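Supplementary Methods, section 5.1.

A reviewer requested that the exact input to the structure prediction be made available. We therefore reproduce it here, unchanged from the version used in the analyses.
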Amino acid sequence: MAEVCSLGGWVRLGLGVGWVLAILGCSPLADRPGSAAATPLAGAAEPPRYVGRATCAACHPAELAAWQGSHHDLAMQEATAQTVLGDFSGTTFNESAGTSQFFRRGKDFFVRTAGPGSRVGEFRVAYTFGVEPLQQYLLELPGGRYQAFSVAWDSRPAAAGGQRWYSLYPAQLLKPGDSLHWTGRDQNWNSMCADCHSTGLDKGYLPAEDRFETRFAEIDVSCEACHGPASGHLAWAEGKAPASPGRGFLRALRGSGSSAWGVDPATGNGRRTSPPSSSAELETCARCHSRRDPITPDAEPGSGLFDAYRPVSLEAGLYFPDGQIEDEVFEYGSFVQSKMHGAGVVCSDCHDPHRLTLRAEGNALCARCHSAERFDSPAHHHHSAGTSAARCTSCHMPARNYLVVDPRRDHSLRVPRPDLSARLGTPNACNGCHTERSAAWAAQAISSWTGRTPPPHWGEVIAAGREGRPDAPPALGALAADPAVPAIARATALVLLGGFPGGTDGESLRTSLADAEPMVREAALVGAQALEPEARLELVEQGLGDPSLTVRLEAGRQLAALSDFFAEHPERLPSALGWGALGHRALDELRSALAARSERPESQLNLSSLEAQLGNLEAAEAASRRALSLDSGFVPARLNLAEILRRVGRDSEAEQELLSANRLAPRSAEAHHALGLARVRRGDLPGALAELAQAARLAPEEPSHAYAWALTLEAAGRPGEARSVLRAALSRSPNHRELALALVSLERSDP
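The structure derived from this sequence is encoded token-by-token as follows.
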């Protein structure tokens, strides 16, 4: 399958703006004959237009022939007898959530299953989605919505376990109303998938009507999905436009000049004759082959990656601390960690960009740049030649399965580090095969082969930062400043620094804000949360003028977060350019980025958070209510609305929202916690203790819940119980500063 999923929006808890991503299923719509406006070509009289692959084929027939039948070509197709691979002969699939039946009526394909409101109905298959190793089906719902059905067809051969229906979420009981149910927002093609499975997308969301009029230039991933709208190129080819580096395209995929690969006889490794002169190719592929947030509406190919999307750093739950893939993150975030990327390797060095096949099969692919005599031998890989264990990818690109049957290889091309597995609990390629052996055994085997002790790895510093260890900030600062470390790891260190108030003097952040990589500069601003307002303001001022949109957006978020500081120190506004030209631009861009995902309740929630920070509480309330109109069960929006209502003195309305949140999500620790705090404020300590205790029980890993519960126990005259709660919480979070200080204070006051 090409890429089955695109990625989702931002979300926040409380009133702080944060980011969250969700991997979803996907779907398409009616062909778009024209194009969305893009950045005009220099000197062009009109914005570039999509011309279609038939026009491209007139001059590039070989490239079109190579592309036909590729996963890009088959990424999405109209559902016909030729394109549908699944068994629609009346077969059924049973799961805990219910039964689905697959059948045909005439030339159409249908699924009978539980739909909106749990009502069983018949839903027509409008499009197929992908081809191998699985195929999904897009079902049409009212409002112009196309939804990815969560029971997929395993298109592998029967001998490999395929030719069957199966659930993409076998361990989850998904019912209508759940965002991951096929009817939910996280399975909506228009919002979540079409961007990467079609060409020239115009999402066409109409907020006032909460419906879509989505159009595209071509149904699948065609020529202009990567090269960009080609009308300017066509004019250039016909001599109707002046010469340009991009030959009439918005951006040239290949840089200027020539470069070739050779093998360095001293090392046996490949060496490029000159470094790539452009990052355009990698950024073009990364637009879909990365875990990222869109930050502009219907971004056209040709804009820089960090002006259209925000790729994530090595976030916990997505990546292991040493950077190995954990959740579905696609390839970009792994590849930019690799020595290959550092040496100038680009995607097309290994992959044919039109056929999407490898340039060579097996170890022969690696031998194009690495001496086979030196590396494709038992002396290097220590396994029997010709076996699967002797494949380069077995050790250097281990795979994990996503969507149950789809193996994705880790593109960080790393050396196996079982010694890190023993210390950090990370996976390693050795124990991926030798499952009966320990990581210590594998580490010893590698040491005996090499005769060396493995060097320190930055993953240990990332792990310390994630754990909140008090000794982590200096190491994180040093990691962020180390130019030998991949930019994505340096960015992650800076983000983690932001979780240690007072943990840095800001010097590493100031240095990083001048880094060449936008991800590092953005992360420096995230890390600035650890600084006092005066020091943070200095960095925000610098970030407001950054050339990269992702950096300016973070500067805008930080600027909004400083609103309380400005209220106390109005004299600082002019030097901060607070609401001057750059400040206004950053905030306008931030609102525009949120509007790009206005169909998502998380984006409305982020907008509410932004307006609340700026003191625009009426606008903040409206945005929270829009979020709830999109999803009445979206508990974070209800908690946010309650906080806004409290701030404007409507306490009884606020408590009703909190009660609703607890009814909707009785196992939400955040909902119980918020209701408990509300009852503390009105002096109902018994009621507060019941809610805070429940929050702490539901989320024992969250120290703030235990902290609030303990302080309320103390206020209720029960210090012994408060100490017990704090000790138990510290046993789970031994590095949590506030818990430790509270316990010390209680024990000092113990008579």
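Residues 692 and 709 are 5 Å apart (CA to CA). These observations are discussed further in the main text.
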